[in-house]
Amino acid sequence: MRRSVVVVGAGPRGAGVLERIAASAAEFGVGSGVELDVHLVDPYPPGAGRIWRHEQSSLLWMNSMAADVTMFTDESVVCDGPIVPGPSLHEWAVDLREGRLAGEHVPPGEVGEELRALGPSTFPTRRLQSYYLDWVLRHVEASLPAGVHAHRHRTRAVGLVDGSPQRVRLATGEELDADALVLASGHLDADPTADEQDLVAFAETHDLQYFPPEQTTDTELDRIPAGETVIARGMGLAFVDLVVLLYEGRGGGFEPDGPDGRLRYVPSGTEPVLHVGSGRGVPYHAKTEYTLRGPRPPLPRFLGPEDIAGFVRRGGVDLRRDVWPLMAKEVGWGYYHELFHGHPDRVRGTWDEFAGAYAEVDWYSDARAELVAARVPDPDDHLDFERIDRPLHDVCVDDLDALQGTLRHYIDDDLRRHVDDRYTAELGAFVALLSVYGQVTELSGTEALTPASRARDLSWWQNLFSSLASGPPGPRLRQLLALSRAGYVRFLGAGLVVEADEGAGVFRARSDSLDGVVVEARTFVEARLPAPSVSRSADPMLAALHAEGQLDEEVLDVGEGCPTKACSSAVRSADAAVAHGEGAVVLHHTGLVRVRPSDFRLVDDDGEAHPTRFAIGPHTNVRIPGAFTRPNTNALSFRANDALARAVLAQVVPAAASLSA
């Protein structure tokens, strides 16, 4: 018997799903009278996909070190499928240059030179990562067990024909049988929101330039002329890419300018002047460049699987009110564990004494504050989440130049804290933060959180986590400081608002950090990815399934009305209040594909999970982190891939029911 699985998306996530299907295939009877075809469909390069494809600027880096990138499970991963180890990016590079990979050769040109020099703490280019991901997929394909066959289709999936089996329509006109369909496309483009459409129309009317949210590598930045005043909204990784492409990408460069890695910008003469702000008003925190002095903190301590199970049993959970105190306490545990073990000269007493007292106090309590003050004398060594989350909350000046000095000082201090091993307690906090992220992701995949909390708090938490854990390498912030000192980047601060001034025919930017100061520009760049949206998806497969009611967008009732399931199909386009029963229902569209958290099956308009259709990745309401991850961290991404793969196998292989019973 022959069965078929179609995986839409052949980037890292799709490759990871294939690897997990292959790992468990024999257990489910594949090869014992059953042949399984796995079709990988993607218009972008297999393995690398769109984000990591080789055809992008060689100036763009990853924001992870080479030793912190792997596509393979290890003994730390707790999953039902077999563990199949493999090399990290750094280990692969070492194996390749030392000739230990049969038939493989160091690539030519700049990438080959980079690979030969790559160390474990190097931040690789995305082009080098594309080679690693290409090898991973080829390695998985070459290692497929008996009965499993992989097929690549370098095209786009555009629709689905229902039936038994269902058939996936490709842009080439071909159709593929699909006993199971897996949507693993990653971040998806979306048509502009109503507000963004208004800005597009405003720009066209007044001969301005507006760049809606998208992958920065795909933005036509050549349209921005030299000397142009530009407003940019967003200070995350898309902003870092924007800066790289607008300055180094136009021939500018950096040279040493004094001690401590300080740089000076050498202009090319083709630069615009970038005015940038965001909600928080500061860039993401730099990556650390040191290791822990003490042992790794024992985690989880205050927020582990049993605590999550308790919240699930309880239900009606508000993340900020009920869970955040434990999240903060857990991060504090990692922070102070490293401070006591790595810097005993800056604390009073022993770790055991502190830990025993810390375990007994609530995060938001005078007792906790008094304990820290008594045991950690220097206030600069206290963990202050309010300052971290809103670092500019007390900054408001009436002079744009004065704000530049404030922001440069903030960025310089952040760099110092992530380079100087006096501050390794922040790495202890980071280790705990990763543990917290995994637990909260598990919680968010259940029905425990109230709809209002899901709508309000998960995006806040994701933003805070990204700012702390997903920042750029330190050299990128040193370059940003050099551009600021040279006057090519101007910071606008927190609470940025950009408006279309019909009377003047320009974009106007103001912020909470500036009193009475407004910046006008004829060019406005959204330096961020588009918000997820099923209803506005530019992906033809997703759009078609949604239009036919086969795939549902998560819609949350954030008021006092019907439960989420009943409200889900009531509204399709935007947040709204509708009459339902005795009162008004306020609906919030998250834009995410609804899946069943236990096995990632698609949920339809009626709230029913489809037996043969699955989705996984950032476009779903089970918010799984990146498709590759750090080794030895029991990565949630790998556990999710494994759960989905085994659900697919149980569905499509007839022998699965008896074998897994």
From TrEMBL:
<dbReference type="InterPro" id="IPR038732">
    <property type="entry name" value="HpyO/CreE_NAD-binding"/>
</dbReference>
<feature type="domain" description="FAD-dependent urate hydroxylase HpyO/Asp monooxygenase CreE-like FAD/NAD(P)-binding">
    <location>
        <begin position="6"/>
        <end position="187"/>
    </location>
</feature>
<protein>
    <submittedName>
        <fullName>FAD-NAD(P)-binding protein</fullName>
    </submittedName>
</protein>
<dbReference type="Pfam" id="PF13454">
    <property type="entry name" value="NAD_binding_9"/>
</dbReference>
<dbReference type="InterPro" id="IPR052189">
    <property type="entry name" value="L-asp_N-monooxygenase_NS-form"/>
</dbReference>
